[in-house]
Design goal:
- By secondary structure, this protein is of the alpha+beta class.
- It has a single domain, classed as Hypothetical upf0131 protein ytfp.
- The protein is built from four helices and seven strands.
- It has a five-stranded mixed barrel.
- Helix 3 packs across helix 4.
- The longest helix has 14 residues.
- The chain is globular and about 50 Å long.
Length: 182
């Protein structure tokens, strides 16, 4: 099926799924093929610093990712794109892309999303659970502790019926490392 080019969709795979920050007309679970959700971005601003980076989600090559797709009203398109660019392109670790996604109702649509730039210095690559958990347990940035971001992400994904075993393992291990305060 050919994507409907008349509609404007945004695909979220992390905090954008439950905290989009923009008005939308429709929201559906959606799957992107060829990309996977990964805790692969060294956060220098929101969940860490340049001296002590945290880890946040990126959409990396390979596999597939279940996330949320939002249909935006035509009158809101420009404002939503401007908002997303300000939110997602802080350090240009992401590349803005149009991805083909399959909605829960089986329609295939083209959706704006942000994928990791593997050549960027903030790209962390594939990390072992233990390594990622240690970073997550200790990093803090402008938006708060990294562990809060990861635990909140896992909690909201579960509420949406989305499971990510690797991320859940990182969250559980980070909580153990952080102890009672985590």
């Amino acid at each position: 099926m050919v994507p409907d080019m008349d509609e404007f969709w945004v695909f979220g795979y992390g905090s954008l799924m439950w905290n989009p920050g923009f008005p939308y007309e429709e929201r559906q679970l959606a799957r992107s093929h060829g990309y996977r959700r990964a805790l692969c971005v060294r956060s220098w601003v929101h969940r860490g610093t340049e001296a002590s980076p945290g880890l946040v989600l990126g959409l990396d090559h390979g596999g597939s990712c279940l996330g949320a797709a939002f249909r935006i009203a035509p009158d809101n398109r420009e404002a939503v794109v401007a908002y997303l660019r300000e939110r997602e392109l802080v350090t240009h670790v992401y590349k803005e892309r149009q991805l083909s996604v399959v909605l829960a109702d089986r329609r295939r649509v083209s959706a704006l999303s942000y994928v990791i730039d593997r050549a960027h210095v903030q790209y962390a690559g594939a990390l072992a659970v233990e390594e990622a958990a240690h970073v997550v347990a200790s990093a803090v940035g402008r938006s708060g502790p990294n562990i809060d971001y990861v635990l909140n992400t896992v909690s909201h994904m579960r509420e949406m019926g989305i499971r990510d075993r690797w991320l859940e393992d990182v969250a559980a291990r980070a909580r153990q490392i952080a102890g009672p305060s985590g």
